[in-house]
Amino acid sequence: MADRIKPHVIERVKTIRQWEKDMGLLEAKDIGFKKYHNYYAPQKLIRQSEAVLSFGVGGDCKFEKLLLHENDQIKLAMFDPTPYTVYNIKGIIRSNGRKEIDDIDRNKWLSTKIQFFPWAYSHTPGEQKFYYDPNREEEHNTHLRENKLQHLTQSFSLIKQNEKFKSVNVETKNIRTIMKELEWDSVDIVKADIEGLWKEISDEILDNNINIKMLATEFELIFDDIHTSLAKAKAVVEKFKQHGYDAFLNRRRDKLMLEMLFIRKDLKYTYES
Questions:
Q1: Which of 154, 176, 175, 178 is nearest to 165 (CA)?
Q2: Could you give the angle at the alpha carbon of 221 between the alpha carbons of 256 and 161, nearest 5°?
Q3: What is the pLDDT of residue 148?
Q4: Is pTM beyond 0.90 here?
Q5: The domain that contains 29 carries what CATH number?
Q6: Would you say residue 262 lies in a domain?
Q7: Of 186, 263, 217, which is closest to residue 55 (Cα–Cα)?
Q8: Do residues 42 and 34 touch, judged by C-beta distance below 8 A?
Q9: Is residue 1 part of a domain?
Q10: Tens digits of per-residue pLDDT, 206-248?
C-alpha cells in the first residue's frame, strides 16, 4: 500500500481499516458472493430479481452486462450524465457488431427492458450543475479535441470540491421520480456510484420505504475530514440495520472510500447454505 498511495493518505486508509474492523463488516468474497465486474452479490438474489436501477455506469457498462448474463429477464434502467459515458453508450447502442458490446446480444441492448438516461441522481429533482476538474483536460489532451468533454474520463459530481472546478448543467432525478416515470411499482436492486451522494440515496430509500432487496454503493470519504465521514458512514450503516438490512463490505480499497452492500435480512437464504 505504501508504494501506491501518498503518506498522508496511508494514515487515513489505516483509520478506515480500523473502522471496518470495529463495525464487524464481512467482505463479500469471503461469504461466497459472486463477482459482477466491480461489485459482488449473491447469485441467487440476482437470478430472482426483476428490476434494477444503476446510477453511474461508466463507459462500458460491464457490471450491467454481467447482470444480464446472469438473468436476461431483468428490467434494467441505467443513468449517467457524464459526457464520456453518454457518448460511449450511444456508440454501443448504434453498433451493429459485437465488438463494442462484448458478448451481450445486440437485441438485448435494444430491448424495451433495457433503458439509458443521461440523468444524475439527486434527492431533489431538477436541473443542477455537474462539476469537473478542468486540469484533467490537459492531462488527457482533451482541450485539443472537438467536443472535448466526451473524451474526459474523470468523475463528475454534483458536489463542488474546488472553486476552480467547471460545470455543465444536467437533469437530476430521485428514485421515486424515476419509478413514477418508468411506471415501475418496485425495484429490487440499486447500484449507486454517485460521487458523494451516498447518504442522500440511502436516506431516500429508507425514509420512503422503497423496499429494495440490495443496495450496492460507494461511500466516498473525501468531502469531509475522515472522522466526520466515518461517523456519517456509521450512522448510515446503523440506519440500514434498523430497517432490516445486513451490511457487508463489497471490497476493501486502498482509497478514501468504502464500498458497501446492504441486503435485506429476509434474503439470507440467497447466500447461506
A1: 154
A2: 105
A3: 61
A4: no
A5: 3.40.50
A6: yes
A7: 217
A8: yes
A9: no
A10: 999 999 999 999 999 976 789 999 999 999 999 999 999 999 9
